Amino acid sequence: MAKPAYMTTGVDADLARLIKDGAIFIRESGTTDVPTGTDWTPVGEASQVGYYSDDGFTLAPNTGDTTELTGHNGDVLIAESDPGYWTVAFAGLEGNKATTEAYFDTTVAADGSITVTTAAASKRYDIVTVGLDQKERLILVHYPSVQISEREGITFNRTTLLAMAATFRTFKGGAAAPYHFKAWGLVAEEPSSPDTP
């Protein structure tokens, strides 16, 4: 049998992505500098995480609970799922103010010290992640309201980089950003013109 034409015409290696570089910004919740596209530029760099681990950063879905309604014979007739949420996770490698304050859920004092009184994390943040692929195409994702849901322990030894690794749970933002996250650049194809059918 001859190979069907769709096996060769339906693929495009130019659309494959490999993230070669990136940046992460942790900002105060309610920051008004809301990205509107991949041409966004941060106002100041004080919120930048700087170096993070070579595992990069991950975006993962967490689906909500599902309620199933069955018929008389046990067949599932309706399955309704709660909206759920997303998580964004990374390990910051720099002991800078932005990373330290977020990881420990506290404030860095004028003398550089931190005072930690609880292991709970209750502060909300605004995060922007940016990735640059092998063809210099940007992927920018804005998370308007996140809160730490999980943290990895910090290892202090001479063979491991000191890292502050955390997973942030997403929530919908306010009126200016009513979403869990908004992303630009995930679709590598050139957008169709309005005249294209």
Automatic annotation (TrEMBL):
Q: This protein is called what?
A: Major tail protein
Q: What is the lineage of its organism?
A: Bacteria, Bacillati, Actinomycetota, Actinomycetes, Micrococcales
